[in-house]
Records
---
Amino acid sequence: IEVTKAAESPTGDVEITHSSDEGAVSIIVTPFKEIIVNINSTTATGRTTSRFMKLNIALVYDERAEGAERVEERRLFLRDSFQDYLRQLSERDLQGSLGLITVKQELLRRARTITESDAPQEMLVSDLIVQ
């Protein structure tokens, strides 16, 4: 795979175009504003408490896929859906690499559902902090 172009737009989106034997592929990496939500946690004594989770994510999508234009059109709905899901999590849900993989898969599933498209390819997590 040869990257032929990588450009950043004023909105922060990064477009990457590359060519291979199978043809040209163009993907967009679009970051979301930082998401901060409350999640539940259980103390050592069994008491339920509330903690903050801070998450910085970006959505990778194929701009040539059918329905890709809906990614930007439905950006606010995507963020809202992500927040709804993240608020349901507990600290235990986020433990280990399996927890991170599960969160990424669920966010990607929601992105595909809301855009009614297979254009979303991947969720990138740059920060996930529980405090």
Note: The chain is about 30% helix and 45% strand.
---
Amino acid sequence: MSGKQKSAVTIFNSHIDAEDAVRELQKSGFDMKKLSIAGKHSGDSVSGNYNTGEGVRYCGKLGTFWEKVLEVVYGSALLIIPGIGPVVIGGPLVRWIISALDGAAPVAGLSAIGTVFCSIGIPNDSVLAYEMSLKSHKFLLVADGSAEEIEEARKILEKTKATDTTVHHS
């Protein structure tokens, strides 16, 4: 094992395609504690994301999708991100964003998500593309792990209906 950390960021056009990819990664044995998902909240009138000790409940247009996905990743949030809008996030990305909001200096011109992506070694041009994907109501999966774990995840993700999968060195 090389010990080098990497991240694979994958873009999906639909929540169905993202959910299928999460299911494939879970079936392969990928550590769900290392998987994050983010997607722009659909604008319906009543929405929320809460945990009552019995799992996450998400009220809104994509409620069933978010509840299924947020059951298998660890941690969730519904954040209003300036420049992007309301975004539902699950997995380690939640902790990273909260840490960035609590103390890290934001990167000029980037959202909190963009700042986090920069902090884990993702180049600015890719960060801007990921922010634009979120603004366009696409879904991002972020897998983090060793070079070997991410190579295995990349192989699985490339067999899904992803529009793009890019591996970045952390």
Note: The first strand starts at residue 5 and ends at 12.
